[in-house]
Amino acid sequence: MKKSQYLAITVALIAGSVQAYAQKGDAAKGKAVFEQCSVCHNADSAEQKMGPGLKGLYKVAKLKSTGKAPTDATVGGKIDEGGNGMPAYKDMLNAKEKADLLAYLHTL
Question: In tens digits, what is the pLDDT along the chain, a chain of 108 residues?
């Protein structure tokens, strides 16, 4: 495969990932999606449950899990890839559910 084909494929994959997080989500629907997250994460406090509490998630300077600023791309990437005991939700949630979940997380 030519270098230009690799570049085109890479750009397409990145654009698809960014588009998934650029969707406008519905926080009320995201709260329902969060039900499955609440087994391990608190929504009403920053206290550790099985995983970290998510209250104020978008207000911190850096995420403890990644060391990066909390943006929809970084939080969404963590949701997609999981890690440190958290399962990957890339294939478990569709793009709309992820957008709704991110909208809900912004309200915490």
Answer: 555 554 445 444 444 444 455 578 999 999 999 999 999 999 999 899 999 999 999 999 998 888 899 999 999 999 999 998 999 999 999 999 999 999 999 999
3-state secondary structure of 87: coil
Q: In the chain, what are the domains?
A: 3-107 (1.10.760.10)
**DSSP conformation letters of 56-86:** TGGGSSS-TTTSS---HHHHHHHHHH-BTTB
Distance CA(28)–CA(103), nearest Å, equals 8
32-64 in b/e burial notation, b at 16+ Cβ within 10 A?
Answer: ebbeebeeebbbeeeeeeeebbbeebbeeeebe
The reply to whether the predicted model has a pTM over 0.85 is no
The DSSP secondary-structure symbol of 90 reads: T
Contact 49, 40 (CB under 8 A): yes
